[in-house]
Structures are given as structure tokens and as C-alpha cells.
Model the fold of this input.
Amino acid sequence: MAVRIVRRCSRRSGPDARTAAGTGLRQNARMPSDPTVEDLYPEVAAAGSLAAALDAVAARHGLSLGTVRALDGSSPLTSASVPSDSSARDDLTVSASTGERCFKFEGWGQGILLIVGDTDDLVGVVRTAHDWRAGTPLHDIRRSVPFVALTRRGEVVEQGPAAVVAAEWRWLRQRTEEADWPNHTALIEAAYNEPRLRQLYPYTSHSVLNFSTTTGYPFSPSPVSLSAHGSPSNFRVWGRNEVIGETATATEAVALAVAHLPAGLGPAVAGRYEGQRR
Done:
């Protein structure tokens, strides 16, 4: 009979990962090809669903997860959603991989992916979910659960929207410096040097520089957009529905864009764009 080496997640959470949540399944155990959910996650199969397994582990450890449910349209054996008590955080989603024993999770808040992680330890997932639900600061969650990773924006989101905007500008400028495209680099730098654009959240799509009045996705419609091209017109400025003009320099393009910004436009705010006027 064909056999397969059952792989585990590379991130592990310490003593609780010595076995697969007490099931006796050890890393690199030899099992038949195409292992089933029952092979990989016996505690989940025994509980009847991933949500029920999370609840059972939480109860054993004196933790609270609220009303855990299966994700719509997904198998209850391999998906679950843990609610958050914080208005700034969405539900934490948990999934169980097929082909290897690996629980994966991610947490979003205000339109930003904040934390991700994977482990073969269900207890570690429950501790993460408990802290996420309770509103524990993200850096504290990472310190207490070693397989949790904060995203680039997750690193700064709790400092407020201005910190998210500043971090995104830093990342965009660094990435642009690494690319061999002088005109695009000049455009990014010229936009950054303009305070009325620097206060907005920058993002690119098809090499076009856009600006959002919110830090979360979906972003707001960009009041103006900028793109770099070859000669004779090196730069182009866009309104929401049409080309405003073309210029020879990045500085001229930014000045033209600023002249067409809506009056009273303020700094980007936290959250998703909900269609309101800004």
C-alpha cells in the first residue's frame, strides 16, 4: 500500500505541539496516501466540526470564544469563525488544510488584514482566538503566541490612521527605489513631498498612483490619480472619469493634481470606504 509522509506546519507553539492536541499523531507519522480529515484532525472529527472542537478546547482551558460558527459555503470540518467583541476587529477565521495537519487563521479589522498564522496545535489557535476576541493588543498577541505574525499594516494600526498612512508611504517609496523606473520613482517622491497628497493613503493599481481617504479596503475612489509614461509627455494626471492633463515633469503633474483636489479634503481616516462623501 502506498504511504505518505504527513507534513505539519513549520510554525509550532511550544510544549502543546509535541503531539497533535493530545491525539498522539506525531510529525512525519506514516499514513496512507490522501489522508482524510479523520486521519489529520481526529479531535475535529470526534467533535463533529472545527467550531465544536474549538469550543471544546476552550472549555478545557477556561477560555471564552463566544458563538463559534462554520463559515458559509465551507465544510464545517475545515472552517470556523470566532467572533470579536471589538468593533475594530472582524471575526477571526480558522481553516484546516487538507493534505497536512495545519490550522491557518487570519484576522481583519476596519478593512485591513492584521494578523495571520499557522500551526498544528489547536490549543494555540484557541489561545489566539481568545486574545483576538478580547481585544488584546496585537503586539501582545504576537508576544504570547509565537506563530502569530502581524502584517505590515498590523504592526502600526493601533497607533491610528496617520501611522498606517505613513507606513504605507514608507513601504511604497522603498519598493519604488528598488525598481528600475526613474520616472515612476520621481512621481512617487513628488507626491510624497506634497502635504495634501501625503495625508492620504497611497495605493497603486496597474502602475497608477491612487489616493484613498480611508486606510481600509475597499478604498475610496481616488480624487486624482497619477501615472508615469515615456516621452513626449512623461506624466499623466487623471480625475475620476477623465484625463486632466499631461506634463513633462513629476513636480508639474503633482501641482496639477493638487489643483483639482476637492476643497476641504482632510487626512485619511480609519476604516473601509462606505460610499459617504469625504
User: Anything to note?
Assistant: Residues 247 and 253 are 6 Å apart (CA to CA). The radius of gyration is 24 Å. The chain has nine helices and 14 strands.
